[in-house]
Amino acid sequence: METTYKKVLIITDTQVAPLYLEDVKQAFSSQVTVDDYVVPAGEASKSMEQYSRLLDACISLQLDRKSLIIGLGGGMVGDLAGFVASTYLRGIDFVQMPTTILAHDSSVGGKVAINHPQGKNLIGCFYNPVYVIYDTDTLLSLPLSEVRSGFGEVIKHALLSDAEWCDDLFQVNVSKLSPEQLNLYLSKGIQVKADIVEQDEKENGIRRHLNLGHTLAHALEAELGYGEITHGEAVALGIWFSLRASEKHLGASLPTEKYAKWLIQNNYPIHLIVNINKNRIIERMKWDKKTVESQIHYVLLEAIGKPAVITIEESKLDELLTDFLKEVSQIDERN
Ligand SMILES: NC(=O)c1ccc[n+]([C@@H]2O[C@H](COP(=O)([O-])OP(=O)(O)OC[C@H]3O[C@@H](n4cnc5c(N)ncnc54)[C@H](O)[C@@H]3O)[C@@H](O)[C@H]2O)c1
Ligand SMILES: [Zn+2]
Q1: I need a labelling partner for 36 at 20 to 30 A (CA). Which of 141, 242, 254, 297 fits?
Q2: What are phi and psi of 277, to 5 degrees?
Q3: Would the keyword Zinc turn up in this protein's UniProt record (predicted)?
Q4: Calpha distance 203→82 (Å, rounded)
C-alpha cells in the first residue's frame, strides 16, 4: 500500500497480533517507520487506563500530524484506536482494518469510544477513519463465539429493514456459514447501517434505530462485567426483549418465537440472564446515554422494517422486564 505518512502506529490486541500484525507491518515497512502497540484482547481494554498508556506511546514515539494510526482488530480495537487518533494532537488520521464480523459494522458510522465502569461508550466522539480496509479472509480465524456475536448485529440490521432477509437468517446455523453467505450478509448489513447513518450522522433522529436491543445489552455488559458476555451476544438477547416489549407495549405482530428458537439453536448464552438482578439492570438502563431526563427511550418495532423510538415509564419497563426474565428462565429450564 502506498503512503505519504511519515510514521505509522498499528494498534492491535494480543489475539490478533500473532495472526496478522507481521503481514500488515510488512505492507508498510518499506516506505515508513512502523511501530505497534498491543493491548490485552478483550473488552476490558477499552478503558481509560489503556487509552492513557496509548497516548504515552504516541508521545514517546513522537507521532505528529503527518502520522497515521491503524486499528487492526475487532470493534474493541477499532473504538479504542479511533478514540486515541481522534484526541491525540486534536486528531490525526486513522485507518480501520476490521478483523471481526462485528467490526465490519462498527467501522461504519464514525463512532469511537472507551467505556467507563458505570457504562459502555460513555467517553467518546464521532471521528471517521480516512479508510476502512476489509479483508474478509481474516474472518476465517474467528472463534465460533465471535461469529455468534457478530451475528447479533447482522440480525439487528435484518429486523430493521427486511422481513424476507429475517426469514432467511432464521435458517442460519452460525457454526456452518459459508464464506459466500458471510460476505453477502456483511455487505447487506453495512448497506442498512450506511443508509441510516448517511441520513443522520450525529444521532439526532433515525440513527437511534440502530440502538435496537442495545439499552438492555449495554446494561447486561456492564452488570456482568465487560468481557463476560460478548457485545453481539448481549445485543441478540437485548433484541429478544425488544421484540417481546414491542408485542406487549405496541401490539406489534413479530416473529418472536422464531427468533427465540434461533437463539437457542445457536447457543446464545441465555443462562447468563436467568439470575440477573432486575433492579440493578433497570438502574443501568436508565443510566445508558440514550436516556433523556430519566425517561427511558426505547427502540421498539411496530413491524419488521418499521422501528420507532418509544418512551417507556419505569414502572412499565419493570413489568415488561419481569415477564421477560420469567419467560427466559422457563425456557432455560427446558433446554
Ligand atoms: N463504533 C461503533 O459503531 C460500534 C458498533 C458496534 C460495536 N462496537 C463496539 O465493538 C466492540 C465489540 O467488537 P468485537 O465483537 O469485534 O470485539 P473484540 O474487538 O473484542 O474482538 C473479539 C475477540 O476476537 C478476537 N479477534 C479479532 N479478530 C480476530 C480474528 N480475525 N481471528 C481470531 N480472533 C480475532 C479479539 O482478539 C477478541 O478476543 C464493543 O466494544 C462494541 O461496543 C462499536
Ligand atoms: Zn452494537
Answers
A1: 141
A2: -80, 105
A3: yes
A4: 18
Would the CB of 96 count as within 6 Å of ligand 1?
Answer: no
Predicted confidence at residue 292, as pLDDT, reads: 57
Integer angstrom CA distances of residue 97 from 66, 72, 231, 291, 302? 19, 5, 19, 32, 36
Q: What is the rounded distance in angstroms from the CA atom of residue 160 to the CA atom of residue 305? A: 4
Q: Which helix (H) or strand (E) holds 111?
A: strand 111-116
Q: Amino acid identity of 155?
A: I
Cα(219)–Cα(313) distance, integer angstroms? 17
Separation CA 189–CA 105 (nearest Å)? 7
Axis crossing angle, helix 75-87 with helix 48-60, rounded to the nearest 10: 50
What backbone phi and psi angles, to 5 degrees, belong to 56? -55, -45
Alpha-carbon span 237 to 234, nearest angstrom: 5
Give the cell for residue 333. 429450564
Task: Give the model confidence (pLDDT) of 53-111 as tens digits.
Answer: 999 999 999 999 999 999 999 999 999 999 999 999 999 999 999 999 999 999 999 99
CATH 3.40.50.1970, the chain: domain bounds? 7-138
- Supply the pLDDT for residue 291: 55
| Least distant ligand from the CA of 104 | 1
Does domain 145-334 fall under CATH 1.20.1090.10? My reply is: yes
Q: Is 221 in the pocket of ligand 1 (CB under 6 A)?
A: no
Instruction: Find the radius of gyration of the CA atoms of the chain.
Output: 20
Cα 74 to averaged position of ligand 1 atoms, centre (Å): 3
CB 122 within 8 Å of CB 113: yes
Q: How far is the CA of 153 from the centre of ligand 2 (A)?
A: 6
Assigned architecture for domain 7-138? 3-Layer(aba) Sandwich (3.40)
CB of 100 sitting under 6 A from ligand 1: yes
